[in-house]
Amino acid sequence: MASHLLRIATRKSPLALWQAEHVAARLRAAHPGLQVELVGMTTRGDKLLDAPLAKVGGKGLFVKELEQGMLEGRADIAVHSMKDVPVEFPEGLHLAAILEREDPRDALISHRYRNFAELPDNARIGTSSLRRQCQIKSRLPGCTLYDLRGNINTRLARLDAGEFDAIVLAAAGLKRLGFQERIAETLTPEHSLPAIGQGAIGVECRSTDARTNALLEPLHHPPTAWCVLAERAMNRRLDGGCQVPIAGFAQLDGDTLRLRGLVGNPDGSGIIRAEASAHPSAFEALGEQVAEQLLGQGADEILRRIYAAP
Ligand SMILES: NCc1[nH]cc(CCC(=O)O)c1CC(=O)O
Description:
Layout: E1 4-10, H1 14-30, E2 34-40, H2 44-47, H3 53-56, H4 64-71, E3 77-81, E4 93-98, E5 106-109, E6 124-127, H5 130-139, E7 144-147, H6 152-160, E8 166-170, H7 171-176, E9 185-186, E10 201-206, H8 210-216, H9 222-238, E11 246-253, E12 256-263, E13 272-278, H10 283-296, H11 299-308
Parallel strand pairs: 1-2, 1-3, 6-7, 6-8
Antiparallel strand pairs: 3-10, 4-10, 5-8, 5-9, 11-12, 12-13
């Protein structure tokens, strides 16, 4: 292919830069001669690092500025953690590729304890999501949870400074940044059901930009996409954002796509679980089915109460 410049809009956190560089390297490998450049941007989510995520509100906290950059022609694609990508895309933009998933699980990091079972009843645990908070509290009701925002390096530094007995982060981000050896225990999906899209990288671009869409095609990983799109279909039906204790995790086993969903109260009470399986081509219907099962067991009550809270 003739030399051509492709600009990647990215946040400037170490993980965002790693992921953008990863997509750049994949694109260069797939298209020799293609010039790829990163365009660093700051999002509202980056500026509000002191406020608890659950209180900042607004969907697309980490993506809106990148999307604006593409719509204004300052960049051609944006690289996101699928976990941070809202259900709906703005007019003119779409998800062009979902890359093969890295480890989707949550990870426990601690200096003093080798695994979750060793944590004392009154452990001090740092974590930033209501989803993790809910599942941790259900197992360890006496623990105290602390809001832990900021990029991965910042969070690890706060653990190292002795603020907490343990913290819980996504294994994918730790592995990508070379912190794998800091993981004390990788939590099973039964223990901590992952966030919708966790571990997967998505690439967004202008819907009508045929050339860029074609360049991204070799990066798309259909098995990961079936999983992530099933999780996202569940989330859409539940009308969930990243500020609610919702978990969703799909796995492909041969020709069977299995989706597990969870909704609970932030204090760990009233956890509702549902799961179903289907052929991977039915990912959308599978997501809606699991959402309906959750709603039928009272998930709507929980979510309404959380959205109504000040
Ligand atoms: N919300 C921040 C965020 N977005 C994506 C990841 C991890 C990497 C991934 O899920 O792909 C993280 C950090 C974390 O939750 O520990």
